[in-house]
Amino acid sequence: MTNCNDVDADEKHALRKQCNEKIGMRLRQLENKMHTICIANRYALTECIGKGAFGIVFAGVDVATDKPVAIKLEIINSNRRSHLQLEHRVYRALCGEGTGRRVVGIPHCYYYGTFGDYTALVIDLLGPSL
């Protein structure tokens, strides 16, 4: 593995571009097989609703209750901290971890864990962005 301190700016840019291309390819592969994926044997992916630098967001359904959910997936990368882990912690803190209470405007977290090479976060499916 290359140490970023040992390369110049052009090499860093090339390495970042190569990494982003690999991530993009893996996310496209995931999107192509989404209808066969079930997270934690409970949450089925139904359609892609967004993509970002670190992952992809799907609309999904809780197959046990038929409730619509949002499913966020990010590729596990040992070189950086998980954004979904931080997001999960923030939601739990805002809702009063362990209280079971619901806060209007803060999505409830149904599942957080790993799924193959991905970190998964299943939350309430909220409305459009403001």
TrEMBL record:
Q: Which domain of life is it from?
A: Eukaryota
- Keyword Zinc in annotation: no
Every copy of the Protein kinase domain together lies at 43-130
ATP-binding in keyword set: yes
> What are the UniProt keywords, alphabetically?
ATP-binding, Kinase, Nucleotide-binding, Transferase
Which GO terms of the molecular function aspect are on file? ATP binding; protein kinase activity
Q: Which InterPro entries match?
A: Kinase-like_dom_sf (IPR011009), Prot_kinase_dom (IPR000719), Protein_kinase_ATP_BS (IPR017441)
Q: Where does ATP bind?
A: 72
| Listed name of the protein | Casein kinase I
* Organism of this sequence: Lygus hesperus
